[in-house]
Amino acid sequence: MKTKCLVAALCTAMAVGIALAEDPASRPVRARKARPAQSQPANSEDFPGAVNEVYKKAGDVELKVHIYNPPGHKATDKRPAIVFFFGGGWLHGSARQFVPQCQYFASRGMVAITADYRVYERHHAMIADCTADAESAIRWVRANATRLGIDPDRIASSGGSAGGHLAAAVGTLDDMTGDKDKSVSFRPNAMILFNPGVDLTRDEPAPDTPAKKRFNLLARLGAKAEDLSPADHVKAGLPPTIIFHGKNDSAIPYATVETFTEAMKKAGNKCELVGFEGQGHGFFNYSPKGNKYYDETLRLADRFLASLGWLKGEPTIGKDSKEPPTTHSE
């Protein structure tokens, strides 16, 4: 049996300070011990400029979605929507990470949403809990689509790193929510994944990593690794997908998304992998000083959505590079 270990690689990388796909406005990533849940706010804050709503209550924890509507949006509209999940190794992170992407897609006519979910440092949440919350978030958006002016048949999931895992999980895994009413599907209609953890069952690539730099991942899974691993649930009929991944990502090896992409294609699914030469983990994040990879991934995501008929016209961010530092696999 394979050991449960892309998760170990990802969390070990976080512990030693590899750049994560998390809120770029937060302090630099470095080794941090998990703090007691009560030492951090249990509930997510409101974001200025967004419609902030509670999508789920887990005990005394209220989880919110932060909704960015396009100009002139009305409840009678049927706009495509995209839901983002932040990175941080299921340990920490902030839904603020994807606010810039939300603002861009709202400007392009979509309802763009960034969702909070339970994490280990704030709530002692298992990875299975994170997955359940992501499924609940998509289900809530679809259940409220008419009120929110959203087309329930055009909802995309997206996210980076651990959030990329969640964005892939909602499209592939079984229902982990425990909801009594499962009449509304949590399956997205498309997936846009940024350096996602798609295989949580790989053999550990660095067995000599010091124990003090490891996390007790088997204790944090909350379910069998296979049940949480999108790569173990590839089948026909999955949503069209695009993946952006740095080829030098030492936290989530590029080979894992190559294998996932090939499996998706073999099953008859539309899946495009865009590899970025020389780039590591979190290369796509917004920076107030500018980041050409932020621009390029948004531009390619825009064109992917346009290919599905969700957006019209050319992307409005940046200009095409003369020599894009990418490799496409379709």
**Alpha plus pi helix count:** 9
How many DSSP E strands?
9
CATH homology group = Alpha/Beta hydrolase fold, catalytic domain
Radius of gyration, whole Å: 18 Å
Relative helix content: 25-40%
The description of the largest β-sheet is: 9 strands, mixed
Q: Could you say what the CATH topology is called? A: Rossmann fold
What does the average pLDDT come to? Answer: 85
Structural class: alpha/beta
Beta content comes to 15-25%
Spatially, the strands of the biggest sheet line up as 1-2-4-3-5-6-7-8-9
Question: Spans of 5+ residues with little confidence (pLDDT < 50)?
Answer: 1-7, 9-40, 203-207, 320-325
- What order do the helices and strands follow? HEEEHEHHHEHEHEHEHE
Distance between the termini: 31 Å
CATH class: Alpha Beta
Number of domains: 1
In CATH, the architecture is: 3-Layer(aba) Sandwich
Q: Features of this protein?
A:
330 residues, alpha/beta, Rossmann fold, nine-stranded mixed beta sheet, 9 helices, 18% strand, disordered N terminus
List strands and helices in order, with pairings:
Layout: H1 6-15, E1 51-58, E2 61-68, E3 79-85, H2 99-107, E4 111-115, H3 120-123, H4 127-143, H5 145-148, E5 150-160, H6 162-172, E6 190-194, H7 217-221, E7 241-246, H8 254-266, E8 271-276, H9 292-307, E9 326-329
Parallel strand pairs: 3-4, 3-5, 5-6, 6-7, 7-8
Antiparallel strand pairs: 1-2, 2-4, 8-9
Helix pairs in contact: 4-6
